[in-house]
Amino acid sequence: MANTADAIIDRRRLRRKLTFWRVLALLVVAIALIGLYGFLAGSDRLSGKTTAHIAKIRIEGTIYENDELIKRLTDAADSAAVKGVILSVDSPGGTTAGGEAIYEAVRKIAAKKPVVAQVGTLAASAGYMIASGSDHIVARQSSIVGSIGVLFQYPDISELLTKIGVKVETIKSSPLKAEPNFFNPASDEAKAMIHRMIMDSYEWFVALVQERRNFTREQTLALADGSVFTGRQALANKLIDELGGEDKSIAWLKTKGVDEKLPVIEWKPAQKTPFGSLLSQSALKMLAEYLGIPQESAGLLRDLTGDRIFLDGLVSVWHVDGKPVGAQ
C-alpha cells in the first residue's frame, strides 16, 4: 500500500511539472507569435516601402493632434523611396491646433517632394486647412468643401443644477479665471474674451487660405463666412484646383516629374497587436462593470469615448459626426 501511495504522489508531482512546462512553452510561443506579427505588420521590406513609389496617406475623421499621423507624414517626407504623396482627405474638421500641426507636417513634405490632396466626401474646416497645405487639391463634383472658420462651444447646465437643487460655489483670483464654465451663465466680459480669441485664430486661418490659394483678402473673406460648397462650386471659387479622383492626382504628380507607373502604396497606421487589443477590450469591460452597466455595453462605451465626443479648445469643424443634417 505504501508503495502504491508513493507512486500516486510521484505521478501527481510529475503531472504538475509537465503542466508547468507546457504552460510555459505556450507562453513562449504566444510571445514569439506576437513579436512576429508586430514585425510583419511594421516591416517596410514586406510592404514595398523601400522601392520607389507614391505614398498614399489617409486623413479621416475628426482632426486632433495626432502624433502617429504626423510621424507618418514626416517619415514620408524623409523617405527617399517616396517620390510623391497623395493625401486622401475625408474629414469634417476638428481642433484648430490639431489642424495646424498636421498642416505644418504637410508643408514639410511639400518642401521636399510634390504632394496632392484628394478630397473624398468631405474636407471642411480643419480638414480643408490640411488640404490647403498641399500644392494641388482634387475633389469630387459632389464633395463638400469649405467651412472656413473657428468656433468655441461650452455647455451651460446652470438651470439643470437649479432644478435638482445643486449650487456650485467658486472662489477664484479674478473674474475671468476659468470662464466660461458649465455651472453659471457666461458674463459679457467672458464672452468678449472668448470672441477675441476666436477672431485671432480666425484671422490666422484666413491669412493661411489667402496665401495658399493666392487670393486677395477680400476674396478670402467672401468665402470664409463658414459656407460649404460642392466640389463644382469650390472649383468655381478656386478653393480647389481640379475635379476627379486618384487618377487626376497621379496625373498632376506626373507634371511634377513623378513616374505615373509607380505603384501607389498606402502608408497605414501602425497596427496594434492582438494582445494589446485584448487588453483594451478587457479594460472596457471592466469599466462597464464598474459603472454598473452590462458588459455588452463595452462597444457603446468605445463609441462614446471616441475622438468625436468632446473637442477641447478652439475648433474648426463642420458637423462633428461628419454627416450633413438630415443624413441617416
UniProtKB/TrEMBL annotation:
Gene Ontology molecular-function annotations: serine-type peptidase activity
Domain Peptidase S49 per the UniProt entry, residue ranges: 110-255
UniProt keyword Transmembrane helix present: yes
Membrane-spanning parts: 20-40
Any one Gene Ontology BP term: proteolysis
Keyword annotations of the record: Hydrolase, Membrane, Protease, Serine protease, Transmembrane, Transmembrane helix
InterPro entries with a match to the protein in the record: ClpP/crotonase-like_dom_sf (IPR029045), Pept_S49_SppA (IPR004635), Peptidase_S49 (IPR002142), S49_SppA_C (IPR047272)
NCBIfam families: SppA_dom
Family statement drawn from the similarity comment of this UniProt entry: Belongs to the peptidase S49 family.
Name of this protein: Protease-4
